[in-house]
Amino acid sequence: MTSKLVPQDPAKVMVIRDVVPKTITTLSAPFSRFGLIKVGGRGTIVRLQSGALAVFSPVALTEEVKAKVAEMGEVKYITALDIEHHIYIGPWHAAYPSAKVIGPEGLPEKRQKQKNENVPFSVIFAPNKPTTVDPEFDSEFDYEFVSAHANKEIVFNHKPTRTLIQADLLFNYPATEQYSRTGVSATSGILTKIFGSITNTYGEGQKRFLWHAISRGDRARFNKSVAVITSWDFDRMIPCHGDVVETGAKGIFQKIMAWHLEAAKKGQ
User: InterPro entries from the xrefs (predicted)?
Assistant: First the structure.
């Protein structure tokens, strides 16, 4: 099934882009959910002020990606942003074995059940448990574990660049950049169009989808997490699915999460 999700030759279609010169680089590639819906995939590399690299939701480790990493610094942190974004954790850890691997609760067990590579997790995020990575990492990032999300989302804010980095909490369809080197339209296909209608940031679809579907299991806890995230200072958003929001991301986040934020104010 994985062969239907990811490109066979990722080097030919991946877009490696410096979003913030010398600090943030994105690795954008095609990714097809269920082999049918063009959601796109994106890994993000952040160069800390110390020179260490933090990698979020890693994608295929091509020779071009390895060269970019070598140019930027030493990989010290590898993070699976949720229980779905872990396909390439194994190859990255094999290439950079001294890096700390970070992920949400349930992911080590899921990987073991799926018989994935044996990757030692240094930090596991869990609900109602204070979690820290280390002083070097913590000094540059805000983070929140959205345990009420079905995918167990960990959301990060890189404070020096005011950049929100997240996986499946918020989408920004269509996945234009991620399909820009494929010769295929990012919006082609009826299922992609339907899914895109509830995962863009300009309509009401995603707002309703989050409220009525995604957060319904534990909306009060979800609301609290959303309130924490909106308290941060960020202007850019890098999602795993869809295009990067270069500026104005906080306003977009607040618009889509408006019902959750209002409920949080009321203590609901």
Answer: DUF4336 (IPR025638), RibonucZ/Hydroxyglut_hydro (IPR036866)
